[in-house]
Design goal:
The protein is α/β, with parallel strands linked by helices. Helix content is about 35%, strand content about 20%. The strands form eight sheets. The protein has a seven-stranded mixed beta sheet with strand order 5-4-16-15-14-6-7, sandwiched between helices. The structure holds iron/sulfur cluster (SF4). Iron/sulfur cluster binds next to helix 2 and helix 8.
C-alpha cells in the first residue's frame, strides 16, 4: 500500500510529541475537511493521555507559514536532483582535496532514529571520519559520560513508574514544571495520592517546580557536586551505606569517599560552600539517608556545566552507596531535553561514540566495518559540537551539513558560530523551516518533512522506543531526512550500502546491529525487533530497551541483577573533586547568568513561535532578577535592560523575581533573529565545555545588567506580518489573527504619521492621536470596518495592555465603542482586560484569574479550574495559579 493510500485510510493516528524527552503519546485525528485534532494518547505509558501546553497546541503548528518547500541553491529554487548533486559533489570534492576530517555533519535530537542512523553510517562508515555531532551535545552529553563512567554504558536505569513508587524525589537542576510538564504532573498526582511522598528541589532559583517542594535548596550556582559529596560523606559517617551492595557490586568507594570527605567534610562546611542554611542541608541528608525509595531526577542544571560529568557522578555515587538502583521507586534519573536525544545516542549520533552504543576501539570498529561492509570506517572520535564549529570557523572543516537544528543561535558564543557558518565554503541545511539564522548562512537548502509527516521511531528519557507516524503528506517537495541522506550517499557512490525503501528497513538494520556479536556485553540490544516486518514496524507499540533476540517485551529497569555493563560487571564510584565554573564573575560582570526554557516555547521557536496560544504567556525575551540587584542598578519591573558579558550582549524585558537568588539572573534561550533583535542569549555564553563530555557551561555566564533607555516604547498589532528594520529593540510574536510587535527606538521619528504609515500600510481609514508634549502617539488603520493594525507609542513602557486590543482582531467590524476605546487607549468599561495569558489551553488571563480568585475566594488551583477551567487541561499553569492565589491572599490581607 502506498503512503498516500495509507494516509487516506487512517483518520486517527497514534504518534509521539516532537518536543521534550518525556516522549508523550499523541493521537492526531484528521477530520474530513483536513483539520487536525490533537489529544493525548491514553494508551501511551509515558503520559497516559495527558499533554502539556506545547503538546496540546500541536495542531496550531501545522500550517505552512515559513515552511521550506523546495530545494534551494544559493538562494534560488532548484530541482532535487541538482540540489542533491551539489551536496554530493561538494562533499566529494573537499574529501578528495583535504580528506575526511575536512567535512562534518551536525544533527539534532529532532531527527528520528532512522534519520540519525543513516547520517551516522554515512559519516563514520563511508566518508571515514567521526565529525558527526548533534545538538544533544549541548543538553545531555554530561549524563552520557557520567553513565558510562559509572555503569559502563549509557543507561538510564529506571522508568517513569519509579516516580509513582518513590517516597522521596529529588529534582536537581530541573524546572520540570515547565520543561518536562507531564512528568511533573505525574509527581504532583503521586504526591496528592500519597502523603508519604516528599519532594526536594535543588536549584539556585525558586522555579514553578518548587510549588511541589517540601524543601527547596537555593544552592549557589555550580555547587551541586559539593552538596552530593557532602551527602556521601554523611551517609558513610552515619552508617547508611549498603555495604553488602558496595562490596559485591561496585568498586572505587574508598577513593570516592576520600574525595567527598576532602571537599565536604561535614554539614556546616557543605552548607557554607553551597550558600544554603545548614538546617536545610541536614534535612535533605536526613531524608535521603532514611528513605529507601529515592529517585534523583536531574537535567540541564547538572549537565550544562564545565564539570557536568562530575556532577552526574556525584549524584550516582550516592545511589550506588546506598544500593538504591535497579529496584522499584529508586535510582538516578536523567531527564533528556529533546524528543529523540536518546535515539541519537543509540545510533552513535555523538562524535565520540559508535553506532549501537559501541565505543571507539579496534574490535568495535572492525565489528562495525564488517557489519556495514564499510570501506572507510572512522577509527577515532571526531570533533564535539563546540570544537566542530570552531573548526568550521578556522577553516579546518570546509563543508558542514546541518540537519534539523539552528546552531547559529543555539551554540554558545552564537555570534562566532554564525560568523563561522558565513565564512564556511559549503554549508548545507536540511530543515523544515525557511527563515532561521542558520538558513541565512546556507549554500544549499534541502526541504525536510516535519512532525506529522515523518515516519520512524524516537526514544524517550526512560528508554522507551515509540513510533512517530505520519498523518499528513509532506507539502511541496519536502522529503524525509533519511531519504535525503540516502540519496546523497547514492550520489557519493555508496548505493549498495544504502538500499532502503523506507524507515522500516533502516530500523531493522539498526536493531540487528544492536544484537550483532553482542552476547550480553552491550546493554543496548533491540535484536528482538530486528525481524519485524513492515506491518509489525507500523504497529510497533511503545517498548523499553533492551529487547534482546527472542523477546518482544521490553525491560522497565536495568541492573536489577546488580550486574552492570563494565568488564567485571561492577558499577564504578568516581572520586569527585568539585571544580568551580570556568569563568568567574568580575567587577565588570558581577552577576551569574543562568539560561533555560520557558513554559510554552521550544528551542528557537521555529515551531512553537507559530502557535498563537503559546505566545500569550511570554511574548518577549526577559531577564529575571532579584529586586535588590535590580534596585542597585536602577532596573524596574517591565523596563528594558541590556545584558552585557565578555562574549556579547542582549536586550530583554526586566522581570523582578524574589525567587531569583541575589547575584544570579535568568534569561530564556528561545529568541532568535526572525523573532527578535538582540534577543539571543547564547551571545552571552562562553564556549567553555566539560573536558570529558564537551558540554558547554550554559548555566554560568558572568554578565552585568544595566537599564536600556530608549527614547520611546511602542507596540504594534497587525493582521499582516511586517518587516521591522532600523530599531534597536523589536520582538515579534504571532497571536490569533494578528502579529504582535514590541518596539523601542533610540530617537523619535521625525514624523510619527509617516513612520506609522510605512510600517502599517497607508490605505484605509486612519484613527490617530498625537500628544507631542507628552510624547504619546496612537494610530489605528481600519479597512471596511475591520481593524488592520494599531500602534501605541509612549516615552516609557506604560502602554495599554495588549490582551484587550488583541481581541479586536477577532471581530469583523469595529463598533463605535471599539473606535473610541482605541483612541482613548483603554478597554470599554464593560469589557475589562483579561491581562497576560496564564492558562494557554483556555486562554485565561492573569487579571481575569485574580478577579475571580478574590471575588469567589478560590483557595486552590482545583477551585480555579472548576470556576474558569484554567489549569484543568494540561496543568502546566497550575504552579502559576497557586502563585496567584497566594498573591491575592497577600493583597487581601494588606
Ligand atoms: Fe510534549 Fe509536553 Fe509531553 Fe514534553 S511533556 S513530550 S512537550 S506533551
Amino acid at each position: 500500500m502506498n503512503s498516500d493510500a495509507r494516509l487516506k485510510d487512517r483518520q486517527r493516528v497514534a504518534t509521539t510529541c516532537p518536543y521534550c524527552g518525556v516522549g508523550c503519546g499523541v493521537t492526531a485525528t484528521v477530520e474530513g475537511d483536513g483539520r487536525v485534532t490533537i489529544a493525548g494518547d491514553p494508551a501511551h505509558p509515558a503520559n497516559r493521555g495527558r499533554l502539556c501546553s506545547k503538546g496540546t497546541a500541536l495542531a496550531e503548528t501545522l500550517d505552512l507559514d515559513d515552511r521550506l518547500l523546495y530545494p534551494e541553491i544559493a538562494g534560488r529554487r532548484a530541482p532535487w536532483d541538482a540540489a542533491l548533486d551539489a551536496v554530493a559533489s561538494g562533499f566529494a570534492r573537499i574529501l578528495r582535496e583535504d580528506g575526511p576530517n575536512a567535512v562534518a555533519f551536525y544533527c539534532s535530537g529532532q531527527l528520528l532514529t532512522e534519520d540519525y542512523y543513516v547520517a551516522n553510517k554515512l559519516m563514520k562508515g563511508f566518508i571515514g571520519a567521526a565529525n558527526i555531532d548533534t545538538n544533544s551535545r549541548l543538553c545531555m552529553s554530561s549524563t552520557v559520560a557520567g553513565h558510562k563512567r559509572a555503569f559502563g554504558a549509557d543507561v538510564v536505569p529506571g522508568c517513569y513508574e519509579d516516580l509513582d513508587e518513590a517516597h522521596l524525589v529529588l529534582v536537581v537542576g530541573s524546572n520540570a514544571a515547565w520543561c518536562h510538564p507531564v512528568l511533573y504532573q505525574r509527581i504532583a498526582d503521586a504526591k496528592r495520592a500519597r502523603h508519604n511522598l516528599r519532594v526536594v528541589v535543588i536549584d539556585p532559583r525558586r522555579t514553578p517546580t518548587c510549588d511541589l517542594a517540601d524543601l527547596h535548596l537555593p544552592l549557589a550556582p555550580g555547587s551541586d557536586a559539593v552538596l552530593f559529596n557532602g551527602l556521601l560523606t554523611h551517609l558513610a559517617a552515619r552508617g547508611f551505606l549498603d555495604t553488602e551492595f558496595t562490596e559485591t557490586s561496585t568498586t572505587g568507594l574508598e577513593d570516592a569517599l576520600a574525595a567527598a570527605r576532602a571537599a565536604a567534610p561535614d554539614i556546616a562546611t557543605t552548607a557554607a560552600k553551597c550558600g544554603v542554611p545548614e538546617v536545610a542541608v541536614a534535612q535533605l541528608y536526613h531524608w535521603f539517608a532514611t528513605t529507601e525509595r529515592v529517585v534523583t531526577l536531574f537535567s540541564q542544571g547538572i549537565n550544562q556545566s564545565s564539570s557536568g560529568t562530575d556532577k552526574v557522578n556525584a549524584i550516582v555515587n550516592c545511589h550506588l552507596a546506598t544500593g538504591r538502583i535497579g529496584r522499584p521507586g529508586m535510582g538516578p534519573f536523567s531527564l533528556t531535553g529533546q524528543p529523540n536525544a536518546m535515539g541519537g545516542r543509540e545510533v552513535g549520533g555523538l562524535a565520540n561514540t559508535l553506532a549501537a552504543h559501541m565505543d571507539f576501539g579496534d574490535d568495535t570498529c572492525d565489528r562495525l566495518q564488517r557489519f556495514w561492509g564499510a570501506p572507510a570506517i572512522a577509527r577515532a572520535p571526531g570533533l564535539k559540537a563546540v570544537d566542530l564549529f570552531q573548526a568550521v570557523g578556522d577553516g579546518r572543516i570546509r563543508a558542514v551539513w546541518i540537519m534539523a537544528t539552528n546552531p547559529a543561535v543555539s551554540l554558545p558564543d552564537a555570534f562566532a558560530a554564525h560568523r563561522a557558518l558565513q565564512r564556511c565554503e559549503l554549508v548545507v541545511l536540511s530543515d523544515c523551516v525557511r527563515r532561521t539564522d542558520t538558513a541565512d548562512c546556507a549554500d544549499v537548502l534541502l526541504p525536510a518533512a516535519t512532525w506529522g509527516e515523518k515516519d520512524g521511531t524516537v526514544t524517550n528519557s526512560e528508554r522507551r522506543i515509540s513510533r512517530q507516524r505520519p498523518f499528513l503528506p509532506p507539502p511541496g517537495e519536502a522529503r524525509p531526512d533519511w531519504w535525503i541522506i540516502t540519496q546523497v550517499a547514492h550520489r557519493m557512490g555508496f548505493s549498495e550500502s544504502f538500499p532502503y525503501a523506507g524507515p522500516g528497513d533502516i530500523f531493522r538494520e539498526h536493531a540487528a546491529l544492536s544484537g550483532f556479536e553482542n552476547g550480553g556485553t552491550r546493554a543496548f540490544d533491540i535484536g528482538g525487533l530486528a525481524a519485524l516486518d513492515d506491518a509489525g514496524y507500523d504497529a510497533l507499540a511503545p517498548v523499553q530497551w533492551p529487547v534482546p533476540e527472542g523477546r518482544r517485551e521490553g525491560t522497565p529497569r536495568l541492573f536489577a541483577d546488580r550486574r552492570f555493563a563494565t568488564a567485571d560487571r561492577r558499577a564504578r564510584f568516581v572520586a569527585i573533586t568539585p571544580r568551580p565554573p570556568m569563568r568567574r564573575t568580575t567587577a565588570r560582570h558581577p552577576l551569574v547568568l543562568n539560561t533555560g526554557r520557558i513554559r510554552d516555547q521550544w528551542h528557537t521557536m521555529t515551531r512553537t513561535g507559530s502557535a498563537p496560544r503559546l505566545t500569550g504567556h511570554t511574548a518577549e525575551p526577559y531577564v529575571e532578577i532579584h529586586p535588590v540587584d535590580a534596585a542597585s542598578r536602577g532596573l524596574t519591573d517591565g523596563a528594558l535592560a541590556r545584558l552585557t558579558g565578555p562574549q556579547g550582549e542582549m536586550l530583554a524585558r526586566v522581570h523582578l523575581e524574589t525567587g531569583q537568588r541575589p547575584g544570579s539572573v535568568f534569561a530564556p534561550i528561545h529568541w532568535s533573529g526572525p523573532f527578535a533583535a538582540c534577543g539571543c542569549v547564547n551571545d552571552l555564553v562562553a564556549p567553555y565545555t566539560d573536558p570529558i563530555s564537551g558540554e558547554p557551561e550554559s548555566k554560568h555566564a558572568p554578565v552585568e545588567v544595566v537599564p536600556y533607555r530608549p527614547a520611546w516604547h511602542a507596540f504594534l498589532l497587525s493582521r499582516e506580518r511586517i518587516a521591522v528594520t532600523g530599531l534597536g529593540y523589536w520582538v515579534s510574536v504571532r497571536g490569533h489573527h494578528f502579529w504582535r510587535y514590541e518596539l523601542a527606538g533610540v530617537a523619535e521619528p521625525d514624523d510619527w504619521s509617516t513612520w506609522a504609515a510605512r510600517l502599517m500600510g497607508g490605505a484605509g481609514e486612519w484613527l490617530e492621536y498625537h500628544d507631542p508634549a507628552a510624547g504619546r502617539y496612537r494610530a489605528a488603520r481600519i479597512a471596511g470596518d475591520r481593524l488592520v493594525a494599531c500602534l501605541f507609542a509612549a516615552p516609557a513602557h506604560d502602554l495599554p495592555t495588549r490582551a484587550w486590543l488583541a481581541r479586536l482582531f477577532a471581530h469583523d467590524r469595529l463598533d463605535f465603542r471599539d473606535r473610541a476605546s482605541l483612541l482613548a487607549a483603554r478597554p470599554p468599561r464593560a469589557e475589562g482586560d483579561a491581562g497576560p495569558t496564564v492558562c494557554s489551553c483556555f486562554g485565561v488571563g492573569r487579571n481575569t484569574l485574580l478577579a475571580a480568585i478574590r471575588r469567589h475566594r478560590l483557595a486552590s488551583p482545583e477551585q480555579v479550574g472548576d470556576a474558569l477551567k484554567a489549569g484543568s487541561n494540561c496543568g502546566s499553569c497550575v504552579p502559576e495559579l497557586a502563585a496567584l492565589i497566594q498573591e491575592a491572599a497577600g493583597t487581601s490581607a494588606a
